[in-house]
Design goal:
The structure is a single chain. The protein is α/β, with parallel strands linked by helices. The protein is 56% helix and 17% strand. It contains 18 helices and 15 strands. It has a six-stranded antiparallel beta sheet with strand order 2-1-4-5-6-7. A hairpin with a 2-residue loop joins β1 and β2. α9 runs antiparallel to α10.
Amino acid sequence: MLVRLEIRDFAVISNIVFEPGKGLNVISGETGAGKSLIVDAIGLIMGAKASRNLIRTGSPSAFAEAVFDCSGIDDDDFKKILSDNGIEDDEGMLIISRTVYDSGKSVARVNGTGVTNAVLKDISSKLVDIHGQHDTQAIFDEGTHVKLLDRFAGDKCIKLHKDYVKSLQEFKDLVLRIKEISSTPDYLERRRDYLEFAVSEIEAAGFKDGEEEELHETKKKISQNEVLFESLTNAQNYLSSESSYQSPVQAVNQAGRELLKASQNDESLKDIAERAQALALDLDALASDVDKILSDRNYDEGMKERIEQRIGLLYELKAKYGATISDINKFAEQSRTELDSIEKNKDILQELKKQRTVKEKELLDLAEKLSSVRKDYAAKLEKAITKELSDLEMPDAVFEVSFVRREKAKFFSMAGIDDIAFRFSANPGQEVRPLSAIISGGEASRIMLAVKNVLSRVDLIPTLIFDEIDTGVSGKASLAIANKLKAIAGSHQVLCVTHTAQIAAASDRGFVLTKKVSDGNTETVCTVLDGSTKTREVSRLLSGSDSDSSLRLAEDLISSFI
């Protein structure tokens, strides 16, 4: 339950601390004092949309923090939400805060851990159920009625509905696939041609895992060898290629022979003749070595082009079938499997239609079971809400849950095969009509309270909040609502914003909000009521005064609830 709420810089609230207790907590005050701001602050903590308009004038941010005692909650889903988000409770206590900045952004924390708004909603939905003024309008929306019925029915109905939705999706997938194939009669033939071409192209290429890296490495080596080969070839040409007359080796040999002849006549030339002969031998050996290196290298001038062509082929296949050689080969394997399937199931359309027939029967069976369970619980809901309405001074009211089977063309909806809606009649002799036909705000408020009370018995949410549930009612109806809220407060913590004396008198703990102006600024003050101040507040709500007669009447009203 909620044990403490602190609000700072929130609209007209500068700083208040609100500490409700067990039972019925009632908040009253003059119009415009900010009573509903407490509900709005709790709504913010529950994940309601944040707006910079919430920030008090002159402040950079608005802040709300709630402390919940969760020690009594035995809900596996709730524990899982906390565990999944790394949130640990502090001896059964949860502190949820939310700050709204003037940029419009907000930050939410649970026990100090930052959470998203979606997580915030999941957690708080297990702690608090708010019935604001807009909820009375929401019950007019027939789209919500099946959800309310399922909540009342509980796990059995919820599980059936989940199974039905799952089966419906599988059925829709089959229908869509049949439609795709049926709309293109040559689909299988074109698909088979494509797969056969793809497999043939990939198999012909024959790429192996790791080959791409090898190709790029080979291309790199070829580029390096190309430069080497060119240099060796040029050297060979310089050494052995013939010019207009003879090669360098031949020229040196010829020069050596001429110098040898000359040395026979002049001994001083013998040394230079021998040097020429040695140089000729060295040049001859050098030319032989270069020839041998070129021969050993066995350079293939066409290999570079072949490597580049294979790399180009690989890029083409990657563009068509996958980002890597492994992906390409995997595509080929999957294609071969699909080709086998097509060959074995040439009449695949007929097979899909058979599957659709089976799935449709399964779906219909689930839908009928869901409808049957809903009808059983609808009868119980009718009885329970009719009893609640009788307690709320509507003894002749009739509440019905209407089931209308959908047209065959629109048979299966996400909700089921029935259109479900609540019907109501307030007085004898009046036909039951849709809730949207209700004009009286008092009737709408009491129906909503009846629905909330019935659902609270199965939801077991610790804290229920009612924001001006007494709108449009007075007298005996107000007293009946007060008694009903008092009864609900026997098993739940109830917070109620009110403007009627009967509900204020029924409170276990009362709070009054007042406005005061200081230095030109307006702010709201929250005061806890004790015995005498509670009597004065009930008197104010009764007559607008604290005369002796009004105070005595207030005391009598309060004592009637003790």
